Amino acid sequence: MRVRLSENIKICKQIFANCDIDYKDLISKKIDEVFFEEYQNTRIVNSFLFNFSKLQDKIGAKLFKDVLYELKEIDDVSMPMIDILNRLETLSILDVVSDWDSLREIRNALSHEYPFDIIERVENISLALDGYIKLKVIFEKLINEIK
Prior knowledge:
Blueprint: H1 2-27, H2 39-70, H3 81-90, H4 97-111, H5 118-146
Helix pairs in contact: 1-2, 1-5, 2-3, 2-4, 2-5, 4-5
C-alpha cells in the first residue's frame, strides 16, 4: 500500500503544480464576457477546470482511502465514501464532511454548465477558484497526517 500511496501523492503534486499555473493566470485577470473573447483565456479556464476535476477524482477515489489505510484507521479500502469522509472529519483532515460535498457540488455545476451562459460560467469559475484553495488545504492536511 505504501508504494501506491507514494505514487498517488506524486501524481497529485504534479497536477497541483499544473493547476497552480492556471490558477495564478486566472486570478490575475478580470473574468467577464470580454475575457472569453480571447481563445487563450478559454484554454486556461479549460485546463484549470480539467485539473481541478482530476484532483478531486484522485484525492476522493484514491488518496483518502490510501491515507486512512496507511494510518490504520480502516482495514478495507472498499469502505463506503460517507464512512471515509466521517473518519477524515474525526481526524480533522476535513473540518466538516460538507467541505467535500461542496467541492463535489462545484464539480457537478461545472459539468452541467452551458458555455453560452456567460454569467453562470463566470460564477462557476469563481466557485472553482475558491474550491481549489480548499482542495489544497485538504491535500496538505492529508500529507501532514502521514508524516
